[in-house]
Amino acid sequence: MKLQQIIIVVLVCIAFLLGYLLNKSYSEARVLSSDLFSIRSELTSKKELIDKQYSIDNCLKGAYTTYKEDWVAFCKLNKIKIKNEDCSIPVIISNEFDKEYREEKALCINRYK
């Protein structure tokens, strides 16, 4: 009878010990899960910022390309000498191209805010 009682006491102690270890592991896992969620959220936020900046940069690049192409096209159309993909055009025309370019840049910024 004594041996059975000792075995029962040992088994109860083992059960408590296992319960404690499992609870501790569960608590640590919850903390890790919370940390991972925070890291994932932060990375997602940074990725969105990078994607947004990439889109703005591409849009600005496209606006500049269009600006330069329109400028050179005007020169070709009006038979103005082009040197190094550039030419001198009347101020009134260049002001209009500059205005359109500024507007396109503003659209790029506003589009991806």
Fold and architecture overview:
With 113 residues, the chain is mostly helical. The protein has one domain. Helix content is 86%, strand content 0%. The chain is built from two helices and no strands. Helix 1 runs antiparallel to helix 2. The longest helix has 76 residues, at 2-77. The chain is rod-shaped and about 115 Å long. 1% of the residues are buried. The mean pLDDT is 85.
Order of helices and strands: HH
Radius of gyration: 35 Å
In what range is the share of β-strand residues? under 5%
DSSP helix count? 2
Task: Return residue spans where pLDDT drops below 50 for at least 5 consecutive residues.
Answer: none
Helix content: over 70%
Distance between the termini: 79 Å
Morphology call: rod-shaped
Category by helix and strand content = mainly alpha
Largest sheet: none
Kindly state the number of beta strands.
Answer: 0
| Average of pLDDT | 85
- Tally of discrete structural domains: 1
Note the main attributes of this structure.
single chain, 113 residues, mainly alpha, 2 helices
What's the structural blueprint in terms of helices and strands?
Elements: H1 2-77, H2 91-111
Give a quick summary of the entry.
This protein is mostly helical and 113 residues long.
